[in-house]
Design brief:
Layout: H1 6-10, H2 28-31, E1 34-42, E2 48-56, E3 70-75, H3 86-97, E4 107-113, H4 126-143, E5 148-154, H5 156-169, E6 177-183, H6 189-196, H7 217-226, E7 233-237, H8 247-259, E8 264-266, H9 281-299
Parallel strand pairs: 3-4, 3-5, 5-6, 6-7, 7-8
Antiparallel strand pairs: 1-2, 2-4
Helix pairs in contact: 3-9, 4-5, 5-7
Domain AB hydrolase-1: 72-222
Organism: Cryoendolithus antarcticus
GO molecular function, one term: palmitoyl-(protein) hydrolase activity
Length: 308
């Protein structure tokens, strides 16, 4: 049953109840002054998926800047829908842009609704979600051709971000991925099976040959390290009281990045549970500092203004 229904177990767009019927308007007041707009794009297999695009607006509802210097593509965890995450993303976006002047950084966040989630068509699977991530990067390249692009993934979304970046960087396609934000990540589905069920008498550790969902961040980071040209900078953002991902998983990822000589920053969010890392101000500040530093390094700008 575990093997046959692994898609149902791993991907939970139906939780909590009514998650797929949520609307952007239900969260609009808690997102202000960030405005969110739904866009529909097509994956390469024809599946229509939804994206939520967030931009900062002024009191009249107008966008505060006509330019975008940085686009963050957000890949969510395995449960729930996009709208419920928008207040959190809005708080982070406001913090990133709160240091900005008219000549400084202007950021946009695009949250991806995987197939089978929210208003997206189809059923979730690793193969399909890979197509959705690739289609989103094509959309970003067409919409923001001169922007720096960062990928932010939470939990299983961190695996999506790593795999998407590795696949993208092995091509000559634009945009270049300047940074990866890996929030409460794990190395792979197989590694999580062993970490959660270490007892050799339990069957779970022996099921990996039957998995068709892998989300192997270890292999993806190795591929990223082997690519030519500039490599994305990486932010590891673990929660110290994570009740889902064991602490050895972040240690493995940190070692992988160090051995692969990838530029990596780690910020542990003290006392946070699995879904709380960027609910907390220190988590949002860590993302903000990383985004602004990546932007500064990419554009060879002067020291950024300090935002606390």
């Amino acid at each position: 049953m575990t093997v046959l229904f692994q898609d149902k177990i791993i991907y939970m767009p139906y939780m909590p109840p009514f998650a797929r019927s949520e609307k952007l308007s239900e969260y609009a007041s808690s997102c202000k002054p960030v405005q969110w707009t739904e866009h529909r794009i097509q994956s390469s297999d024809g599946t229509m998926i939804s994206l939520a695009e967030g931009t900062l607006s002024d009191a009249r509802g107008a966008q505060t800047s006509s330019k975008t210097d940085v686009v963050i593509v957000y890949f969510q965890g395995n449960g729930g829908s996009t709208p419920a995450r928008l207040p959190l993303l809005s708080s982070t976006l406001k913090l990133i842009n709160s240091c900005s002047t008219s000549d400084d950084l202007h950021c946009t966040i695009i949250a991806v609704s995987y197939r089978g989630y929210w208003t997206s068509e189809g059923r979730a699977s690793e193969r399909g979600i890979k197509l959705d991530a690739a289609a989103t990067l094509v959309h970003v390249a067409a919409s923001y051709p001169s922007a720096q692009v960062l990928l932010w993934g939470q939990s299983i979304g961190a695996g999506v971000a790593c795999v998407a970046a590795a696949g993208h960087l092995t091509t000559t396609a634009q945009p270049r991925i300047a940074g990866l934000i890996l929030e409460t990540p794990f190395t792979s589905v197989r590694s999580m099976l062993t970490a959660l069920y270490p007892q050799k008498w339990l069957p779970y550790r022996y099921l990996h040959p039957f998995l068709w969902n892998h989300w192997d961040s270890d292999a993806a980071l190795q591929r990223i390290a082997a690519t030519d040209g500039p490599k994305p900078q990486i932010l590891l953002l673990p929660a110290t009281r994570d009740e889902v991902v064991p602490p050895e998983e972040i240690e493995k990822l940190a070692s992988i990045c160090a051995e692969a000589q990838l530029s990596t920053r780690r910020v542990d969010i003290l006392g946070a549970l699995h879904t709380e890392a960027t609910m907390r101000r220190e988590g949002q500040q860590a993302v903000t500092d990383f985004v602004r530093d990546v932007y500064k390094d990419s554009r060879s700008k002067q020291d950024r203004p300090v935002c606390r």
